[in-house]
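Why show two proteins at once? Because comparison is the fastest way to build intuition. When a single record is shown, students tend to memorize it. When two are placed side by side, the eye starts asking what differs. So, the first record is below.
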Amino acid sequence: MMPSARHTCGTRRGLVIAAAALAATLAAGCTSGNSSAFNGIDVTGADYGKDFRLLDPEGRTRTLADFKGQAVLLFFGFTQCPDVCPTALARAAQAKALLGDLGNRVQVIFVTVDPERDTPQVLQAYTTAFDPNFLGLHGTLEETAEVAKNFKAYYKKVPTGSSYTMDHSALTYVYDPAGKLRVVLRHDQTAEQFAQDLRRLLA
């Protein structure tokens, strides 16, 4: 349980503190020190976030093995998020553009924590609005909970009148081309900082 390491979409207060708290929790699970050249949190050797098994909008099962040879940025969110999720995807698109030709070796994955509303069609339309190659993945409620637990990612449904929103962590997990989790990027980092870390992984 990490009550301080969360963010309700639509409210920015405490986001930086929450992201830092969760990043610290994640970093505590890795075997390497923090004396790295990464802008994000170096989690090389982490014992979490090793893989996932979810469906893409076309119904195909996807795992990390599908993206070998690419740097993968993975983010948990939902399509009705008013600020954090679109900001994260827009920044990822900017970072990819900053890489030039190296950007062709970057795959951005958006895992929905709201599979009840984020249908395959909704996910595809949402992610490709930021970049044609961005990929949205989904699972059942049980599968989503299992993947989030594997990544130590926090999310919770929060009632809002007759509807609901999602409380969720706002970090980006980055894998190297060999499929190893290497960096956790914070929500307050810039597109250039994202691009710098991606360049190091793709070099």
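Second record. Ask yourself what differs from the first in the token line.
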Amino acid sequence: MKSLDEANIYITGGSSGIGLAFARLAASKGANIAIIARDKKKLKQAKKEICSLCIKSSQKVEAYSVDVCDPKKLYKAAPAMVKKSGNPDILVCAAGVGLSNYFEKITNDNFKKIMDINVFGIWYTLKAFYPYLKNRNTHCVLLSSLAGLIGVYTYSAYGTSKFAVFGLADCLRSEFKENGINLSVICPPEVDTPLLQEELKTIPAKAKRIKKITGVLSADTIAQSIMKAILKKKFMIVPGFMSKTTWFLHRLLNGYGTRLLTDIVIKL
């Protein structure tokens, strides 16, 4: 794929955060956009924002209120979405929630919610749209995290979900490629989104110190990374200089350096 112009792009979690940032960027490049989320009010506002950035009158922008954690409703809704918005050329799975807290304070319900949205939500979405993506030289993008590559203090729930997303992407890459679907996984550090604001309600002070090491990126920066992954058919992108450096050192030292640094920081 050489450009996003006239591509039909479906984005879960498209009403806010990274999903909305990429929807805006893609619209400004001439793409047709279909955003999927639960909140109808946010969807309406997001659609308005996306439409304002369209560069051609022929571009289509649609918003669908569907819960990606409900497979029955999602599977039922997918054919109707495709009939209205066209066969997906690009599918971006950006729906997700965050949580940072001590293991003993994370309830079973908290953990289940994280896994339902961050992991099963992606699984169900891929299942719903796979028949429309297959054998058409299409592209899927999954949102993991740097916390899906490196274990992070107080991220036992969120990190587990993002490790699962990266593992899913790694397992599916060859299988999807064999069936005409390119697959990418994006692993950003902290991103300034509503997810981050929600996480700040519970994050321990020690965890904040650790997270400062890799810094905070904007949702627009991650949107650019998604576009790069699609246009250059890159499997994995770790956005941000400090994130790349941290990931490189983690691999180089077989995890010893990042674990030692974490132990030092939490003792301060």
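One difference worth noting in the second protein: The chain has a mean pLDDT of 94.
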